[in-house]
Amino acid sequence: MSGKRVTRLTPDQRREQLVGIGLEMLADRSLDELSTDEVARRAGISRGLLFHYFDSKRDFFRAVVRAACDRFTAATEPDPALAPVPWMRAFIAGFVAYVMEHRRIYLALVRGAAGSHPAVTDILDETRETLARRVRDGQRRLGMPDAPRLDLASRAWMAFAEEAVISWPAGNGDGQDETHDDTRDELCAFVESSFVSFLGLLDRPEALDRR
Protein backbone atom coordinates (compact mmCIF):
# COMPACT_ATOMS: atom_id res chain seq x y z
CA MET A 1 0.00 0.00 0.00
CA SER A 2 1.31 3.43 -0.91
CA GLY A 3 0.31 6.71 0.56
CA LYS A 4 1.36 10.31 0.77
CA ARG A 5 4.00 10.83 3.40
CA VAL A 6 3.19 13.66 5.77
CA THR A 7 6.20 15.75 6.61
CA ARG A 8 6.38 16.58 10.29
CA LEU A 9 7.51 20.13 10.92
CA THR A 10 10.02 21.00 13.58
CA PRO A 11 8.82 23.48 16.24
CA ASP A 12 10.74 26.30 14.54
CA GLN A 13 9.29 25.40 11.15
CA ARG A 14 5.77 25.27 12.58
CA ARG A 15 6.18 28.66 14.24
CA GLU A 16 7.48 30.09 10.97
CA GLN A 17 4.52 28.60 9.11
CA LEU A 18 1.99 30.06 11.55
CA VAL A 19 3.59 33.50 11.49
CA GLY A 20 3.66 33.36 7.69
CA ILE A 21 -0.08 32.63 7.62
CA GLY A 22 -0.64 35.55 9.98
CA LEU A 23 1.28 37.84 7.63
CA GLU A 24 -0.74 36.63 4.64
CA MET A 25 -3.97 37.34 6.50
CA LEU A 26 -2.86 40.88 7.37
CA ALA A 27 -2.93 41.65 3.64
CA ASP A 28 -6.74 41.93 3.80
CA ARG A 29 -7.61 42.64 7.42
CA SER A 30 -6.48 44.54 10.48
CA LEU A 31 -4.55 43.04 13.36
CA ASP A 32 -7.79 43.25 15.37
CA GLU A 33 -9.43 40.94 12.85
CA LEU A 34 -6.61 38.39 12.82
CA SER A 35 -8.27 35.18 14.03
CA THR A 36 -6.11 32.50 15.63
CA ASP A 37 -8.91 30.02 14.86
CA GLU A 38 -8.53 30.75 11.14
CA VAL A 39 -4.73 30.68 11.34
CA ALA A 40 -4.90 27.22 12.91
CA ARG A 41 -7.43 26.05 10.30
CA ARG A 42 -5.25 27.20 7.42
CA ALA A 43 -2.27 25.42 8.98
CA GLY A 44 -4.30 22.22 9.37
CA ILE A 45 -3.89 22.10 13.16
CA SER A 46 -6.11 22.70 16.17
CA ARG A 47 -6.29 26.07 17.89
CA GLY A 48 -5.00 24.38 21.02
CA LEU A 49 -1.91 23.19 19.17
CA LEU A 50 -1.25 26.73 17.96
CA PHE A 51 -0.89 27.72 21.59
CA HIS A 52 1.65 24.97 22.03
CA TYR A 53 3.96 27.16 19.90
CA PHE A 54 2.86 30.53 21.27
CA ASP A 55 2.14 31.30 24.90
CA SER A 56 -0.93 33.38 24.13
CA LYS A 57 -2.78 35.30 21.42
CA ARG A 58 -0.72 38.32 22.46
CA ASP A 59 2.48 36.33 21.95
CA PHE A 60 1.30 35.27 18.49
CA PHE A 61 0.41 38.85 17.54
CA ARG A 62 3.85 40.01 18.68
CA ALA A 63 5.53 37.32 16.56
CA VAL A 64 3.56 38.38 13.47
CA VAL A 65 4.28 42.08 14.01
CA ARG A 66 7.94 41.37 14.70
CA ALA A 67 8.23 39.39 11.44
CA ALA A 68 6.56 42.14 9.43
CA CYS A 69 8.78 44.83 10.98
CA ASP A 70 11.92 42.74 10.42
CA ARG A 71 11.03 42.39 6.74
CA PHE A 72 10.45 46.13 6.48
CA THR A 73 13.74 47.10 8.10
CA ALA A 74 15.60 44.54 5.97
CA ALA A 75 14.03 45.96 2.78
CA THR A 76 15.16 49.47 3.67
CA GLU A 77 18.75 48.65 4.67
CA PRO A 78 21.20 49.88 2.00
CA ASP A 79 24.60 48.38 1.33
CA PRO A 80 26.93 50.26 3.73
CA ALA A 81 29.65 50.23 1.04
CA LEU A 82 27.61 52.52 -1.23
CA ALA A 83 28.62 56.11 -1.80
CA PRO A 84 26.41 58.71 -0.04
CA VAL A 85 23.97 59.52 -2.85
CA PRO A 86 23.44 55.89 -4.02
CA TRP A 87 23.07 54.92 -0.33
CA MET A 88 20.33 57.49 0.18
CA ARG A 89 18.57 56.45 -3.04
CA ALA A 90 18.74 52.77 -2.08
CA PHE A 91 17.19 53.55 1.29
CA ILE A 92 14.37 55.58 -0.26
CA ALA A 93 13.77 53.03 -3.04
CA GLY A 94 13.54 50.24 -0.48
CA PHE A 95 11.10 52.22 1.63
CA VAL A 96 8.90 53.15 -1.34
CA ALA A 97 8.92 49.64 -2.82
CA TYR A 98 8.04 47.94 0.46
CA VAL A 99 5.13 50.25 1.30
CA MET A 100 3.77 50.13 -2.27
CA GLU A 101 3.96 46.33 -2.43
CA HIS A 102 2.74 45.67 1.12
CA ARG A 103 0.45 48.66 1.62
CA ARG A 104 -2.32 46.82 3.47
CA ILE A 105 0.09 45.16 5.89
CA TYR A 106 1.90 48.45 6.45
CA LEU A 107 -1.37 50.24 7.17
CA ALA A 108 -2.55 47.44 9.46
CA LEU A 109 0.62 47.78 11.50
CA VAL A 110 1.52 51.45 11.48
CA ARG A 111 -2.00 52.92 11.51
CA GLY A 112 -3.88 50.25 13.45
CA ALA A 113 -1.78 48.01 15.66
CA ALA A 114 -0.42 50.56 18.09
CA GLY A 115 -3.87 51.75 19.15
CA SER A 116 -5.60 48.39 19.07
CA HIS A 117 -2.82 46.35 20.60
CA PRO A 118 -0.56 48.28 22.99
CA ALA A 119 1.36 45.02 23.45
CA VAL A 120 3.12 45.61 20.11
CA THR A 121 3.81 49.34 20.53
CA ASP A 122 7.40 48.72 21.59
CA ILE A 123 8.10 46.74 18.40
CA LEU A 124 6.65 49.49 16.21
CA ASP A 125 8.53 52.20 18.10
CA GLU A 126 11.76 50.24 17.71
CA THR A 127 11.14 49.95 13.96
CA ARG A 128 10.43 53.67 13.60
CA GLU A 129 13.63 54.44 15.49
CA THR A 130 15.61 52.17 13.16
CA LEU A 131 14.23 54.05 10.16
CA ALA A 132 14.82 57.45 11.77
CA ARG A 133 18.40 56.42 12.57
CA ARG A 134 18.94 55.62 8.88
CA VAL A 135 17.60 59.04 7.96
CA ARG A 136 20.11 60.64 10.31
CA ASP A 137 22.86 58.42 8.89
CA GLY A 138 21.92 59.50 5.36
CA GLN A 139 22.00 63.14 6.36
CA ARG A 140 25.51 62.78 7.74
CA ARG A 141 26.68 60.77 4.73
CA LEU A 142 25.57 63.62 2.49
CA GLY A 143 27.75 66.00 4.47
CA MET A 144 24.94 67.86 6.21
CA PRO A 145 26.08 69.03 9.65
CA ASP A 146 24.73 67.65 12.89
CA ALA A 147 22.09 69.86 14.45
CA PRO A 148 20.10 69.87 17.70
CA ARG A 149 16.91 69.33 15.72
CA LEU A 150 18.21 66.40 13.67
CA ASP A 151 16.36 63.75 15.65
CA LEU A 152 13.07 65.65 15.45
CA ALA A 153 13.59 66.41 11.76
CA SER A 154 14.32 62.77 10.90
CA ARG A 155 11.08 61.61 12.52
CA ALA A 156 9.10 64.42 10.89
CA TRP A 157 10.50 63.52 7.48
CA MET A 158 9.61 59.85 8.03
CA ALA A 159 6.00 60.86 8.75
CA PHE A 160 5.98 62.97 5.57
CA ALA A 161 7.48 60.16 3.45
CA GLU A 162 5.03 57.61 4.86
CA GLU A 163 2.03 59.80 4.04
CA ALA A 164 3.39 60.55 0.56
CA VAL A 165 3.84 56.87 -0.30
CA ILE A 166 0.46 55.81 1.11
CA SER A 167 -1.43 58.63 -0.61
CA TRP A 168 0.43 58.67 -3.94
CA PRO A 169 -1.86 58.02 -6.95
CA ALA A 170 -1.42 54.49 -8.26
CA GLY A 171 -1.18 55.52 -11.93
CA ASN A 172 -3.64 55.00 -14.74
CA GLY A 173 -4.79 51.63 -13.42
CA ASP A 174 -4.02 49.58 -16.55
CA GLY A 175 -1.94 47.13 -14.54
CA GLN A 176 1.11 47.41 -16.76
CA ASP A 177 4.49 46.84 -15.11
CA GLU A 178 5.98 49.77 -17.03
CA THR A 179 3.36 52.11 -15.58
CA HIS A 180 4.01 50.74 -12.10
CA ASP A 181 7.74 51.30 -12.52
CA ASP A 182 7.21 54.84 -13.79
CA THR A 183 4.93 55.61 -10.86
CA ARG A 184 7.45 54.23 -8.40
CA ASP A 185 10.34 56.15 -10.02
CA GLU A 186 8.36 59.39 -9.88
CA LEU A 187 7.46 58.78 -6.24
CA CYS A 188 11.09 57.97 -5.34
CA ALA A 189 12.21 61.24 -6.97
CA PHE A 190 9.57 63.18 -5.02
CA VAL A 191 10.52 61.60 -1.70
CA GLU A 192 14.24 62.11 -2.45
CA SER A 193 13.73 65.81 -3.20
CA SER A 194 11.87 66.20 0.08
CA PHE A 195 14.74 64.49 1.92
CA VAL A 196 17.29 66.96 0.58
CA SER A 197 15.14 70.08 0.97
CA PHE A 198 13.60 69.20 4.34
CA LEU A 199 16.78 68.10 6.08
CA GLY A 200 18.69 70.85 4.29
CA LEU A 201 16.80 73.34 6.44
CA LEU A 202 19.04 72.21 9.27
CA ASP A 203 21.88 74.04 7.49
CA ARG A 204 19.97 77.28 8.00
CA PRO A 205 19.09 77.55 11.69
CA GLU A 206 18.12 81.18 11.26
CA ALA A 207 15.19 80.05 9.12
CA LEU A 208 14.02 77.75 11.89
CA ASP A 209 14.54 80.31 14.64
CA ARG A 210 12.61 83.07 12.85
CA ARG A 211 9.77 84.44 14.93
Q: Give the topology string: H per helix, E per strand.
A: HHHHHHHHHH
Outline the biggest β-sheet. none
Low-pLDDT residue intervals, each spanning 5 or more residues: 1-6, 172-176, 205-211
What Rg is obtained from the alpha carbons, in whole angstroms?
21 Å
β-strand percent reads under 5%
> With helices defined by DSSP (H or I, 4 residues minimum), what is the helix count?
10
Helix content: over 70%
| E-strand count | 0
Q: Round the mean pLDDT to the nearest integer and report it.
A: 82
What is the 3D shape?
elongated
**How far is the first residue's CA from the last residue's CA?**
86 Å
- Alpha-beta content class: mainly alpha
Overview of this protein structure:
- This protein is mainly α.
- The chain is 71% helix and 0% strand.
- It has 10 helices and no strands.
- The chain has helices at 11-25, 36-43, 47-53, 57-75, 84-101, 103-116, 121-141, 150-167, 177-200, 205-209.
- Residues 1-6, 172-176 and 205-211 have low confidence and may be disordered.
